[in-house]
Amino acid sequence: MNYHWDWSVFSQLTITTVDRYWQWMLSGLALTVLIALLAWMFALALGVLLGIARTVPFRPARVVVGAYVEVFRNIPLLVQLFFWYYIAPVFLSLPWQAVINTAQPVLVQTVTAVLCLGLFTAARVCEQVRAGIEAQPKDQFSAALALGLKRRQAYRYVILPMAFRVILPPLTSEFLNVFKNTAVVLTIGLLELTAQSRQVGEFTGHIFEAFIVATLLYFLIAQTVSRLMGRLERRLTIPGESGGGR
Amino acid sequence: MSRSGVRLALIGALIPVIAMAAPRFGSANPDDGSGRRTTLEKIRRTGVITLGHRENSIPFSYFDDRQRVVGYAHDISVAVAREVERELGMSSLTLKLVPVTSQTRIPLLINNTIDLECGTTTNNRIRGRQVGFSTNYFISGTRFLTRKGSGIHDLDDLRGRNVVVSAGTTSEIVLRRVNAQRKLGIRIIAARDHGDAFVALEFGKAIAFMSDAAILYGEISKAKRPDDWHVVGTPMTEEVYACAMRKGDVEFKAVVDRAIQRMMRDGDMRKLYARWFQAPIPPREVNLQVPLDPGLSALFAYPNDLPLE
User: Fold this and answer.
1) Helix (H, G, I), strand (E, B) or coil at B115
2) Which of A53, A147, B22, B241 is a plausible cystine mate for B138, CB 3.0–4.6 Å?
């Protein structure tokens, strides 16, 4: 292969001559991590509430949340992102549209990305939480209620602590997916890790070096996340309880 | 602890392996023992020439309303393929078309997926480190596309405004550079391609779209209401377009250059220009009406393959 390798491109001055290419990669990494963490916190909070709502003995709540899950889980993420970025603001009043369109684009795009990824991931978290709750023996609920706990207390002190332990491994995968899914935001113009590595590749002519570094960074993120989650899992294990995961 | 220790050691070992192996896989690739293999030999052996094309660069290389690849640069690449046929004495070369983007064209050339890319690729020195360029076939200056009545007439009107560019283009380089040097505070949106950049402009995400004038005219031609848009501003740079091929393949470059220079000599290139820039073109049969630039006419008279930057 007739390719000229040069790993020093990252220390070269960029096209603007005010910074260096490693700083571009770093800013891409920072944006990827920021969007993923914010989206994950949002998804976790919303997903848990929705997941509980799917199991309560109140049909309208179950139907509405069921519809939410179907919509957000079945429409491709890319389409959802385009909807939130381009279409949704059109329904706002003109002054609001003007505010959004003249604001700092990175801010608007980041908020949109967090919202979109969060709503999408919440639908998936919701299903995990529901599965975790439904995995608990029915008797647990009856026993809790028989002890005089309110339904809320039964969830809070009996069902959820066990359910969360069961779903910790699949939640780890969802968490990892959020990081990988952040790459779609380059389609609305956000320069996250993948986009920045393309930029560096394009402007230096050393696209393979840029992609290799991006690959390693994604790999490091994924390893960090799964190690932290693994540690959390071990800490939460209840001895003798198979639901603990190990 | 010991388990995670082992895992960490494995990962630690894997990272340098990936980093080292990636270059090595590559360099072992096309030779398979028989020495350097040129593009012409590859084409002779397979009977196929693979052309990279754009999906969305009107009027250079794009899909028309029947999903066929058409355009000024595409016609040039087909003419090159015919020249290769003559050179090899083969009567029926198969043309294989592979869509590429600004981000994929260079890797796809280097890994032998495509043999030639004629689109809107600017011939510049940075790219010249990795790929070879044919005789230039187009000259364009970067300008701004904006909605009529937006109040934008030139660069200085864009202070503190949102401006969209296609990521990785020379326009992005120029805009980022002038923005940093003159502290204009322009907020730059880097869209994935020209189509996405125009969508951002249409939806008001940006007040102007900076690109090569020819591309901007192409975008206007497919707008729902072409009359709403116009191209403004003094050209900030000159760019020359050329076909990209694998670097150092002298024989193939000679054939490509011969095809292009003959078109320029015979007046075919001038006719091709009229066909794509001064006559109705698909998909909406709009006439871009771009007059022939004196610089371009000079290029046709004195062909060269020099990068401008």
Assistant:
1) coil
2) B241
Beta bridge partners of A132: none
The vertex-A118 CA angle with A116 and A122, nearest 5°, equals: 125
Which residues in chain A are closer than 8 Å to B187, comparing Cβ atoms? 104-106
pTM of the model: 0.83
Amino acid A3: pLDDT = 84
- Pick from A1, A220, A233 the residue to mutate for testing the B interface (most B CBs within 10 Å): A1
| Contact check, Cβ <8 Å, A227/B247 | no
Write the ipTM. Answer: 0.85
> Phi, psi (5° rounding) for residue B240?
-115, 135
- Contact A101/B204, CB-based, under 8 Å? yes
Long-range contacts formed by B26-31: CB under 8 A, 24+ apart? B26/A1, B26/A3, B26/A208, B26/B110, B26/B111, B27/A1, B27/A3, B28/A1, B29/A1, B29/B111, B29/B112, B30/A1, B30/B112
Q: What confidence tens digit (pLDDT) does each residue in B20-41 have?
A: 555 444 443 444 444 457 999 9
Domain ranges of chain B: 39-137+242-301, 142-238
Tokens read off for B39: 């593009």
Residues of B in contact with A206 (CB under 8 A): 130
**What are the residue ranges spanned by the domains of chain A?**
7-244
DSSP string, B134-163: -S--EEEEEEEEEETTSS--SGGGGTTSEE
The list of chain B residues with pLDDT below 50 reads: 1, 23-35
Which residue of B179, B189, B247 is in closest CB contact with A189?
Answer: B189
Q: List Cβ neighbours of A130 (8 Å cut-off, separation of 6 or more).
A: A51, A54, A55
What CATH code would you report for B142-238? 3.40.190.10
What span, in angstroms and rounded, lies between the C-alpha atoms of A21 and A235?
40
CATH code assigned to B39-137+242-301: 3.40.190.10
Report residue B234: phi and psi, to 5°: -80, 140
Task: Tell how far CA A220 is from the center of its chain.
Answer: 17
What residues 87-146 of chain A have any CB closer than 8 A to a CB of chain B? Answer: 89-90, 97, 101-102, 104-106
For domain A7-244, give the CATH number.
1.10.3720.10
* Distance between CA atoms of residues B201 and B156, nearest Å: 18
SS3 B223: coil
DSSP type of residue B122: B
